[in-house]
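Suppose you are handed a protein chain with no further information: no name, no annotation, nothing but its sequence. What can you learn? This example shows the usual starting point.
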Amino acid sequence: MGHPAHFHLFKNTIAALQARGHLVQVLIKKKDILEDLLRSAGLEHININPEGRGDSKLAIILGLLKREWEFYKVIRKFKPDIMAGTSAEIAHLGFLLGIPSLVFNEDDASVVPYFAKVAYPFAKHVVAPDCTDVGKWNSKKIGYPGYHELAYLHPNNFIPNPLHAQPYKDRGRYFVLRFAKLTAHHDEGRTGISNSIASRLIEILKPYGEILITSEREINSELEPYRVAIDPLHIHSLLYYADLYIGDSQTMAAEAAVLGTPSIRFNDFAGEITYLEELEHLFGLTTGIPTKDVERLFEITGKYAKDVTLKQQFEVKRSKMLESRIDCAGFFTKLISDFPC
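A reasonable first move is to predict its three-dimensional structure. Written in structure tokens, the prediction is:
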């Protein structure tokens, strides 16, 4: 695992594999609150990159080589039959050591070109949603009708807890704003919601409900009073009961969408990522707006904030989406458990 979202992606599959009697070794690298989530869930793991790494290309390459050496030492001891995850390391070491590797991703290869070039040539299979284009490695793809977020937010796996959204829920409508760092290698040259745009969004939303900010990056003093302190394990209940999500994070936009919470994503990836485009144009569960169109962001925000029936409309859309999409955790469990080794 290399990101907090990967904890959620695999947590139910790990539990299911262990329940079937399989031994599972979890490896991670330092990233934001990833290790905190694992500890809170009581999930044993090995951090093969506890000091983290820089964001330059050289730092990325050196970090990869260091993790592969640490990973190799674990493999020698644990002797896995199969390796599954979201990192290039499993593809490289699996290829060199003859161990099947399943690389999971939901972004198109064109969106994460560096990762695709480094990982996909060596992976046994790339596991991705049916709609995701993994480029010239499509022959390796194992597709499925779903999204990563349905591995942990499908109704089979997630029941929202209203206690986790209190006291906000009891005070009426509330809106969640999310600001990502956008510092990953594939984020280079991309921008999202600036402090000034965030201030304007607050002006628009304030007459209609409470504003809650969750942010990976530093925010200015004007925005700080709106920042919400919440247990990361409770964030999805907070998102489920929200009346609107606005952010520059791809993952949380998709999470809001599959939960049936009206979702607006504002960044330079809008229009490019197939699974989010599918959630938008096939199911109407999210709206992507590029940064050059900031006035449209303000216009749609105002329109959504005024509509007190919007949440109910999106719950209907969510139900239609779930009719044609699967519980991905169940699919992942069967794939890994039954994979021929």
